[in-house]
Amino acid sequence: MTLRLYDTSARQTRDFVPLEPGCVSIYLCGATVQAAPHIGHIRSGLNFDIMRRWFAYRGFAVTFVRNVTDIDDKIIAKSADQGRPWWAIGYENERAFNDAYDALGCLPPTNEPRATGHIPEMVEMMRTLIDRGHAYAADGNVYFDVHSYDGYLALSNQELDNLRQPEGEGETGKRDPRDFAMWKAAKPGEPSWATPWGAGRPGWHLECSAMAHKYLGSAFDIHAGGVDLVFPHHENEIVQSRAYGDDFAAYWTHNAWVTMSGEKMSKSLGNSVLASEMVKRWRPIVLRYYLGTPHYRSTIEYSEESLREAETAFARIEGFLHRVTELTGDIEPASEVPPAFAEAMDDDLGVPQALAVVHNTVRQGNSALTADDKESAAARCAETRAMLGVLGLDPMDPSWGASAGGAHGAQADLHGVVDSLVSLVLEQRQAARQRKDYAAADAIRDQLQRSGLVIEDTPAGPRWELAPGQARVPGSGPGPSRDFRNTH
Ligand SMILES: Nc1ncnc2c1ncn2[C@@H]1O[C@H](COP(=O)(O)OP(=O)(O)OP(=O)(O)O)[C@@H](O)[C@H]1O
Ligand SMILES: [Zn+2]
């Protein structure tokens, strides 16, 4: 069976043929660390984490590079606004991204290069492109001459004649408005790096071309990113790298957006939910299920209701695993996934179809439990764990720690118990307030505070969380973690 991938460049699904047998090299455009991530930002990291896991399952040695763009206009603007160095803002947000990737169980990349650590490589690339007549310097900027290379815009299937490019701020001296900046001259007071063409900072496209070359060589298998990166970012990467002499990526894969009311989830539109908030409100493994199981090329329309549905669906799977292991003791994942699951994954990472196999297996396992057929139930449990493992969704995998319910749902169960006890006590406090027995109401609140809980009255009702400095639930591991917090 051959693994097939939808290649944006070919506009069709193609058999995956690696450049080097048994190996796959993947470059994913990573975060621009100008703000903490919303769940839309995390989706590509998660989708391509599933891709690399599937390649690994299929026996490939995977090299996975995901860069960090740690300098850009918004970082510079924030630095000026806040009076803090650009690198402090970048690093703070880089950590927020990594916290979110970790919380959602994304494996760390093989390499995670930062743009500003690769200025010499970028200078070398520009020098070569200028020498070959593909790029030119003007007013301290370096531009790529889009007329100098045939085949520009093939990925997005556009014609140069129809292309209109708005002029970027400070981008003076262009020979053609469609030429794009590889390097941007520094304005007074901005962070800058010296080059033979003047002090400045890298353009985003150049960063990825230079880092992909350094870590993956002149040809690699798959370039991945969000669908909005096809143009201009990926087109500009391609033309720079090819003009430089690299074959660059053999396949191009792009994930779709997370939307809200049909619009792209976006900070500037004000319709975003921070990943750090989401992992407090939902179990990280449920969030992974929610964001990782729709097909990577399908839009996810965010809603609380669909999250609750994901929670219920996942609980059905998890409940089965727990029921079996309570009966039989621990069961290891099977060494192979069922053929129908593998077939779905081989077909352009058909996770929804693969997940249908998981649910089907769970159904069969539950029937076996009902029929008291322990052996068959145990076999279905082993298969389910193997399939979930490939998706990074096995709640019994120790990497989830207790937060996924790894220790047989200990933390999740405990959270539920604490939550219902607190809600009971809060109802009594509410009742005391309604009968104007404020002394009793305050006594209840004081008692809760002594127990280490902070109660806040909000328009949505009283809300509780652990007082600062309170230990998390015993047994919660260093992996994905979750605050105890709730609204009643
Ligand atoms: N809603 C989303 N769904 C999927 N991917 C997204 C989403 N928003 C952003 N991304 C990915 O993250 C990258 C960085 O996004 P971008 O800086 O445009 O984020 P944003 O939240 O839309 O920011 P802004 O509010 O400043 O427009 C995008 O190129 C895209 O690949
Ligand atoms: Zn990139």
Can you tag this structure with a few keywords?
488 residues, Four Helix Bundle (Hemerythrin (Met), subunit A), 4-stranded parallel sheet, 4-stranded antiparallel sheet, 43% helix, 15% strand, disordered C terminus
CATH homology-level superfamily of the largest domain: HUPs
- Helicity level: 40-55%
- Largest beta sheet: what is the strand line-up? 4-3-9-10
CATH topology-level name of the largest domain: Rossmann fold
* Assembly state (oligomeric): single chain
Mean pLDDT: 91
Ions, cofactors and other ligands present here are: adenosine-5'-triphosphate, zinc ion
- In the CATH classification, which architecture of the largest domain applies? 3-Layer(aba) Sandwich
Counted up, domains total: 2
GO molecular function, one term: cysteine-tRNA ligase activity
Subunit structure: Monomer.
InterPro entries: Cys-tRNA-ligase (IPR015803), Cys-tRNA-synt_Ia_DALR (IPR015273), Cys-tRNA/MSH_ligase (IPR024909), CysS_C (IPR056411), Rossmann-like_a/b/a_fold (IPR014729), tRNA-synt_1_cat_dom (IPR032678), tRNAsynth_Ia_anticodon-bd (IPR009080)
Region (Disordered): 452-488
Structure description:
This is Cysteine--tRNA ligase. Its cofactor is Zn(2+). It is a single chain. The protein has about 500 residues and is α/β, with parallel strands linked by helices. It folds into two domains: about 5-270, HUPs (Rossmann fold), CATH 3.40.50; about 300-400, Four Helix Bundle (Hemerythrin (Met), subunit A). It is about 45% helix and about 15% strand. It has helices spanning about 40-55, 75-80, 85-105, 120-130, 205-215, 230-245, 275-280, 285-290, 305-330, 340-345, 350-370, 375-390, 410-435, 440-450; strands at about 5, 10-15, 25-30, 60-65, 135-140, 140-145, 180-185, 200, 220-225, 250-255, 260, 265, 300, 455-460, 460-465, 485. It has a four-stranded parallel beta sheet with strand order 4-3-9-10, with helices on both faces. A hairpin with a 2-residue loop joins strand 5 and strand 6 (about 140-145). Helix 5 crosses helix 6 and helix 13 runs antiparallel to helix 14 (about 440-450). The longest helix has 25 residues, at about 305-330. The two termini are about 50 Å apart. Bound molecules: adenosine-5'-triphosphate (ATP) and zinc ion. Adenosine-5'-triphosphate binds near residues 225, 226, 229, 264 and 272.
